[in-house]
Amino acid sequence: MKNDRTILITGVTGNQGGAVARALQGAGVHLRGPDAKAGQPAAAALSRQDIEIVKGDLDDEATLRHALAGAWGVFGMQNAGEAGVEREEAQGKRLATLLREAGIEHFVYTSVGSADKQTGVPHFDSKWRIEETVRGLRFPSHVILRPVFFMENLLAP
């Protein structure tokens, strides 16, 4: 069943975002992924699978606004390993705010287990603060996922 809804998937060239894209392929929605490093091989491979790749950087509001144009929903995640805790928090809050301003109807945000409270663990607490921002923005519909561990992390170099 085909519909005209566009879903933006951040991290689409990585493990988590890529898994979401694969799960949604064939669901009748248009998939779009922002790519901060234009032209990387993973993005080219996704393009060949009918996933629209657009310029988009979680640190750049203008490219995010462009990537969001016409989207109905967003799967949002940030990589603390690449960004660092403070930058990841800024990216998450920026993304959530821009989504709300853009009128996104459904937001799925990937957080971390134990982010329902402050823990004293910087990475967990930054996710908690992003969650607080998401809840405060009062999206028409949102889901916060709190995975505790990814088995693929054991295979990382």
Provide an overview of this structure:
The protein has 157 residues and is α/β, with parallel strands linked by helices. The protein has helices at 15-24, 41-47, 61-68, 80-83, 85-101, 122-137; strands spanning 6-9, 30-35, 52-55, 73-76, 106-110, 141-145. It has a single domain, classed as NAD(P)-binding Rossmann-like Domain (Rossmann fold, 3-Layer(aba) Sandwich), CATH 3.40.50.720. It has six helices and six strands. The radius of gyration is 15 Å and the shape is globular. The N and C termini lie far apart (40 Å). 33% of the residues are buried. The model has no long low-confidence stretch (mean pLDDT 88).
Give the helices and strands, then pairings.
Elements: E1 6-9, H1 15-24, E2 30-35, H2 41-47, E3 52-55, H3 61-68, E4 73-76, H4 80-83, H5 85-101, E5 106-110, H6 122-137, E6 141-145
Parallel strand pairs: 1-2, 1-4, 2-3, 4-5, 5-6
Helix pairs in contact: 3-5, 5-6
